[in-house]
Every structure is written in structure tokens, then in C-alpha cells.
User: What shape does this take?
Amino acid sequence: MASTAEDKQRIQDEQAPKTDVKESESPAKRPSFYRRHTWLVRIMAVLAVLVIGSAIAVNVAVHHRQEQERLGLGAVQAPSAPEALEDSSGRTGAFTAHVEYTSMAETDGHQVATDIAWDDAWFFEDPTVYNHELATTCSVLSAIANSESGYYQAGSNAPAYMEQALAALGFDDISTASYQYRSEVFDEIVDFFAGTDDVVAYSVATKRVKNTDGAEKTLYLVSVRGSYGSEWLSDFNMGDAADYEMDAIDHEGFMRAADEIVNDLAERLSEDGGGDDVALLFTGHSRGAATANLAASYADDMTTGLRVLAPLENIYCYTFATPEVTEFGNVHDELYDNIFNIMNPSDMVPRLPLAAWGYARYGHDLWLPGYGDEAFNEHYDEMRAAFKANVGTESPYVPEDRERVDKLIEDIAREVPTADDITTVGGIASLVHDLLADVDPMQVLYGHYPNVYIAWIQAIDADDLRADEE
Assistant: This one.
């Protein structure tokens, strides 16, 4: 007898082999593992698209940047002609000015302020004699160089701190063009991928200074910004002397930045006429200090050649938190006696690259009072008071870190005896181990803050600086 459709289905079901329920379930009712696997594949696909898309975008940006450079436009254009400081006070002689800027010790663009001295007569004095008042003013100007970055960021309402400060000091004009293409996150990313991070941002400003006897000079002030964004990578670009077929070289990352500044000055001075009445003042903090140190040494070197930027007796340089900058052994030659490098013993940055690797600074090294020094006990409270007056908060740095930094440098020198060893796996592992063992990197960084340097210099006299080697 013919069966109905329902009967046929029932008989087929009864005759079908018995299986595990999980195996007989439809795909829609299978465990969620399968559904998760499907979604995982989709998510991975999306991430792959994003990564590939980002890589393509960066690649396009890098090639666009390189094409600009080929056409002479450049990601970082050649510094423009200086612009007049319309609000310049025009002041000459000796006076005090009130300047504002930002501090690494405060966030969210918090403004800090201090009064600084100025005297045109400084630039008619012997540059090889340390001038504590000029050093104090330079410590503030080097900090303002860091503050200037905010003005060149899209959407920022930060003021042009450097322009304002130099206008208050009576400068006539200024060029800060290098900030325009070195202050955005995108620019820093592109510089990283393009391999063009051996740069700095800097200001060049001029003022006609007058001495009490009526003599005049044109002063070129160069204030160099510290490490910013991908420029940190350049701090580790020590270079290889073998690439230059030499026995020693200046730190390559700093050297390239200093070369740009010196070439800029040479072009500016050729256009302005130059002459014996030109004076140069270099200053900077951290990477800016290293660059200023080298730029001043190159300006000194040039006084013995055909292309002279300024007479040797008219070149001044004050740097702060200055890293070691060169493998050359002539750093203490009389030629460089016009360069003064001021460092905090609790700050690790001036100890790198290691002296044990053969590195040093041009000119004179001067150390602020450190924990354990007699001058430290005498002036530490004054330093803390000066810091609070300038910044509005208590000083965060820990002077006792001097002992930890000393030990750290000793450990690195022992475990990584040469600069070449740092590129080995063992060298890197040893370095990281030492860094994490006894030192809190963030805490040690406090001793590197520009405002710590400013406060110390305000609190002491020239006699309180220690000139012996660390």
C-alpha cells in the first residue's frame, strides 16, 4: 500500500542509523565555536585591511614627503626670511623682563613665568669667562624653545612663547620656520618612516646690541628645542666613524641637526653682510643642548677657515642637561673655551652616551650642586623656593637619585664596555636589566626638567658650580 509522505519520512527516520546528537545537528545549531571562528576570521580580515591601509597611507605620505624634498619644497622647508617682531619692546642696555612659557612639570599647557635679566653689555665681554647672569637667562630661553612647539600644532590656541619672550627682550626679528613642520604628530610619524628624524626645531632672532661706550653689534640668538617625537630616535644615532673613513666622529644624530643650523646661519649672514660686528649666542636643553654645543663648536672651527660666521671673541654658548656629543679628543682645546655646559648630577641624560665609550662635550662642563655636596646643603631650600615661585608647584625631582645614576652608569660601562656592544642582544638585555633594577626612569626624568635647572641656577652663584669631571 502506498504510504503518505508523512509515513515515508517516518520509516526513513526509523531506519536511519543512530548518531550522536551533536553530529546530527544542523549547521545553524552547531556549537558557538564555529560561529566564533567565523567572526574571528572576519575580525582578522578587517584588521589586516586596516594594517595594510595604514601601511599604504604611510608609504604614500613618505613618498609625497620625499617628492617635496626632490622639488625643493621639503617636508621641512628651508627657514624663511625672519619676520619682524612687531611687539618688540626695542629695549637696549640692562633691564629685567617678565616672560611666560610652559613647564614639563605641569600638564595641559599650564603657563609658568619668571623674570629674567638682560644686558647688551654681555656681548662685549670675553665669552671664555663664565657669565652666571647670562647662563640664567639662557636656561629660561632654552625652556621656552620647548614651549614654542604648541603654537605650531593644528587647532592649538597656545601663544608664540618664543616670539613674546624675545620681543620683551628687545629683539627685532625672528625665524621659527623649522617648528612648522616638526611639531605635528603626523610629521613625526612620517619622519620616522622616511628616516629624516635627525633634525631639531630652533629659533634664530636678531637684535642690535649696544655697549655703554657706544659700540654696537648685531646679535644672532639661536635657541634649540629639546627632543620631540621621533627625534628621540636620533639621540641614539651615534653613527659609525668607519662610514666616514675616520677614527672618530661627532654623534651623528646631533651632528646633522647642528649642520642644518650652521648652514642656515651662514646663508643668513651672507645675505645680511656679516662682518666683525656680528655676535652669536647658542643655547638649548637636552637634545637642544647637544645640538647647540656642536653648532657652537663648528662656528668656533670656522673662525680658522675661509667661511667665518663671527669672530671667535664674539661667539657665546650656554647649554643645559647636555648629552655627550663627540668621540674626538680635542674637546678641551682653547678654541672651545667659549662653550659652557651645565648639568645636574641627578640627571642621567648628560651621562649618555657614556664617557667610557669615548664620548665627551666640547668646552667646559659645570655641574650643579648634587646630593652630598656642600653647596647642595646650602642652597637646596632656595632651589625649591625658586621652583615653586616659577612653576607654582613643589619640585618633583629626587636629589638622592644621584647615587642611583652613578651606580647605573658604572653598571652599564661594565656590562656594555663599548658602544658597539649595545647593538648585541646581550648588551641590550644587560642594559634593560640595569635600567629596571635600581632606577625608576620616570622619577629620574624629574631631574632632567628644564625648570629644575632654572631654579638651581637662580638659587646659586657661579662659585657653587663644580667644574671637575663626574
Q: What stands out?
A: Strands lie at 83-84, 94-102, 111-119, 173-175, 202-210, 216-224, 278-285, 315-320, 339-343, 364-367. The chain has two domains: 33-74, 83-397+447-464.
